[in-house]
């Protein structure tokens, strides 16, 4: 599991861990039921405090992304397909919102933006079929 901590990031370290682990779960790199490194092992690998890692795991558990079994460890949560879908929808909405802001600053009309999106979808569909 590749997690990269950046001291120059504006985000606290526990948030960097949380967001990267969520990305790994959402992308399927971390599969349902897969065991995660122990809090101590991850802290050691990342050379950070155990408290920081514990906070990241607690946040992930509170959001339903992981489950912790006493004495066995933490695992990618199963059966939360709707939660994962909502998280993905939220991320797509954020990205589309950024695209809209960028289009507005470039004086691109809404119809042109919709045409661009349609062309990109069609182009991507053709690439997947090939």
From TrEMBL:
<dbReference type="InterPro" id="IPR036390">
    <property type="entry name" value="WH_DNA-bd_sf"/>
</dbReference>
<keyword id="KW-0238">DNA-binding</keyword>
<dbReference type="InterPro" id="IPR000524">
    <property type="entry name" value="Tscrpt_reg_HTH_GntR"/>
</dbReference>
<dbReference type="Pfam" id="PF00392">
    <property type="entry name" value="GntR"/>
</dbReference>
<dbReference type="InterPro" id="IPR036388">
    <property type="entry name" value="WH-like_DNA-bd_sf"/>
</dbReference>
<keyword id="KW-0805">Transcription regulation</keyword>
<keyword id="KW-0804">Transcription</keyword>
<feature type="domain" description="HTH gntR-type">
    <location>
        <begin position="11"/>
        <end position="79"/>
    </location>
</feature>
<protein>
    <submittedName>
        <fullName>GntR family transcriptional regulator</fullName>
    </submittedName>
</protein>
């Amino acid at each position: 599991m590749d997690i990269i901590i950046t001291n120059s990031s504006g985000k606290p370290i526990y948030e960097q861990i949380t967001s990267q682990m969520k990305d790994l779960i959402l992308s399927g790199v971390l599969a349902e039921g897969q065991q995660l490194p122990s809090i101590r092992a991850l802290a050691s690998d990342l050379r950070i405090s155990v408290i920081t890692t514990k906070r990241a795991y607690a946040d992930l558990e509170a959001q339903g992304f992981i489950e912790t079994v006493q004495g066995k460890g933490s695992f990618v949560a199963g059966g939360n397909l709707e939660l994962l879908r909502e998280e993905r929808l939220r991320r797509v909405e954020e990205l589309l919102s950024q695209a809209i802001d960028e289009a507005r600053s470039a004086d691109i009309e809404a119809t042109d933006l919709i045409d661009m999106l349609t062309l990109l979808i069609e182009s991507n569909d053709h690439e997947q079929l090939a």
